[in-house]
Specification:
The chain is built from one helix and 23 strands. The strands form six sheets. It has a nine-stranded antiparallel beta sheet with strand order 6-7-8-9-23-19-18-13-16, with no helix packed on it. Strands 11, 12, 17, 20 and 21 form a five-stranded antiparallel beta sheet that branches. A three-stranded antiparallel beta sheet has the order 1-2-3, with no helix packed on it. With 296 residues, the chain is mainly beta. The longest helix is centred in the middle third of the chain and has 4 residues.
Amino acid sequence: MKEDFLTISGYGLTAVVSTLGAELQSLRDSNGREYNWQGTPPYWEGRGPILFPATGAPWNETYTIDGTAFKMPKHGFVKDQIFSVKEHTESQLVLEYKPTEETLAFFPFQYVLQVRFRFEKQTLCVDFSVENTDTKELFFQIGGHPALAIPDFNKQRVVNGYVRLHTADTVTPIYIIRAREQGCIQPGRFPAPINDDGLIPICVDTFANEALIFEANQVCAIELLDANKQKVAMVESDAPCWLVWQMQDVSSPYVCFEPWYGLPDNEGESRELQKRPYVQQAKPGQTWHGGFTVKI
């Protein structure tokens, strides 16, 4: 199968999705304003991949099942796979992926992964479902990687926008963890770089240690504000972990708000699949549900 680009529209919004990786390519309003990052070089060339069955990196790209080692690339492999089209109407798209002989070598389970794109008012909903069609329990991680374009970006400007976190009332103070060697989690907790206005500036210093990683259901939604602190868009999810990410050491015209149902391994710890951080599971015949929304 070859890559195809499919369009849905509703409530004055239009989205374009690629069958390669079920990756969102575009999200525009009725005025033609583009909210999705367009993958423009020399910056990050992605646009919002789906991460499955790993979020982040296993240590040495290796995990084990009952003591047998398997290789797994960072963020899994479905981002590089062609999805089949199960449903495509004017306002809804359902893409589906089933394992192949090639991917079974990375991940020896039978399952059906579906990604549904639909609109609710001024919101794009991206729904994940993972059906376990195997005879054994299925363990996996999954995540979104939505990338928002920063409006009126100016590389000469120190701060091009702001991040506003929506957090659980019981979580204070907000902390982050960090990925370092091989993209795996280093020891320790660190203060979130929140300023006196309760915002995180989008600037080179904020991403000096690459992604800001929030775990333990600290965050339930994240807003992008422009340089004048006006709201641009908001991503919401029930995922237990979130990443705020931008390229390191360079001011960039996008920012990613990534809801993850899982985290990378700790540095130096290759793990059994079922012990990977925040791993999800489905018993034979069960279907797991998750996802995120982008509201503009």
